[in-house]
Amino acid sequence: MALDYLSELPLPRPHKHETRRFPEGFLWGAATSSYQVEGGNDNSDWHDWDRIEGHTTDGAAAGAACDQYRRYEEDFGLAASLGQNAHRLSVEWSRIEPREGEWDMDEVVHYRRVLESLRRRGMKTMLTVWHFTLPKWFAARGGWEARDAVRLFERYTAFLARELGDLVDFWITINEPMVYLVQSYGIGVWPPGRKGPWPVLRVFRRLVRAHRAAYRALHEALDRDGRRVQVGIAKNVITYVPYRRQSLVDSLFVRLLNRLFNHQFFRKTKHHHDFIGVNYYFHYRIRYLPTKISQFFYEVHTENREVSDLGWEINPRAIFNALMEMNRYGLPILITENGIANADDAKRPRMIVATIKEVYHAIRAGVDVRGYFHWSLIDNFEWEKGYTGRFGLVAVDFATQQRTPRRSAYVYQEICRENGLPHTLLKFIGHGIRW
Ligand code: FCB
């Protein structure tokens, strides 16, 4: 389906008391992934992994998560009432294909209802085919290291295209391939926890081929009458800067990391993206450390910086640089994730306003940004961090499953409803922004 994107770029300069208005048709949403919110995904590789002691910081397994498998109507109702006009979610492969080559049509019906529920509310849908979790059978036969992994992923994607294609506006084939590589095969804190340079290289090549195959499968199944389906990936983009400004090694290392982490996957999948999906969380001040092999030869410095509950530097301004960096591909950009862990919500409202302001400046500078999806709609299971990182616009009490919108949800609501940043928000919340 074509993007409805009618306005001219760059945007006109507003008067200082006017709302910073975004292009017409801009997507304002939030993002989640199946394993993190649904609950009951006991056929997934993570289900074996997160129950092992030491695999999550708080010792918690995902378990029932937010029970969104059953409460999606309530959650989407909330998202819509909070002014959001789009939503990003993923399907759980282990539900759709519980055993190799066997499709569970009841689960297809379930996901059709989920997507229809969004459509009924007038929301655009963005569907992730694979967001980190694998069916147990796929993991048992070697996961992405197995020779025919790409064929199996392609078959699964083609099945989704056939069964759900009419209800999806934007497809994400793979969420954060490089993060998956680092976590699962580099430092080994995610399944299968197989560290080593050879698995890293092998899986990198497989993921490249898997994306290309899925991209083609989706276009073959869904392009018709001159309309092209929109397919991309969600790429975690890190803005790197040298810690020691004068240091040549730090600077060279920053260039190397930028190339490897931010660009290598795109370089290998040229002509297989209709948009660039950007997940922005990290601004890394990098210090090169030749002896720290286990840390990939570097250290990230956060002293004198404001950080989130997980200790990640909060740096909304650098999203401007991230967008400029990804603009080199000459494609539309969708911000497919951005957010912070902040349980008491003291920092999130400012962070949202400051970030959206930078996105606005990037658009004015000529970057074709078409949507922003906040991570996340609700608090959820944060992988190896268990339930310690609270990323939701909406707080979840996991004992009762009660949802309570945080103040930031209403700040974001105002932005969504206005399709821009009212100067009152800039004045009151942005006032005192130090970033
Ligand atoms: C991203 C992941 C997402 C979530 C956020 C906080 O890297 O895509 O699942 O964990 O980080």
Describe this structure in words.
The chain is of the alpha/beta class. It has one domain (29-429): Glycosidases (TIM Barrel). Helix content is 38%, strand content 18%. The chain has an eight-stranded parallel beta barrel, surrounded by six helices. The longest helix is centred in the middle third of the chain and has 26 residues, at 197-222. Residues 33, 36, 175-176, 179, 236, 279, 337, 375, 382-383, 391 line the site of beta-D-fucopyranose.
TL;DR?
The chain is of the alpha/beta class and 435 residues long. The chain is built from 14 helices and 13 strands. The protein binds beta-D-fucopyranose.
Topology:
Layout: E1 20-21, E2 27-31, H1 34-37, H2 45-49, H3 68-81, E3 86-90, H4 93-96, H5 105-120, E4 124-130, H6 136-140, H7 149-164, E5 170-175, H8 177-186, H9 197-222, E6 230-242, H10 248-268, E7 276-288, E8 298-301, H11 318-326, E9 333-338, H12 348-364, E10 369-375, E11 394-397, E12 402-405, H13 407-418, E13 420-421, H14 423-428
This protein binds beta-D-fucopyranose.
Beta-D-fucopyranose (FCB) is lined by residues 33, 36, 175-176, 179, 236, 279, 337, 375, 382-383, 391.
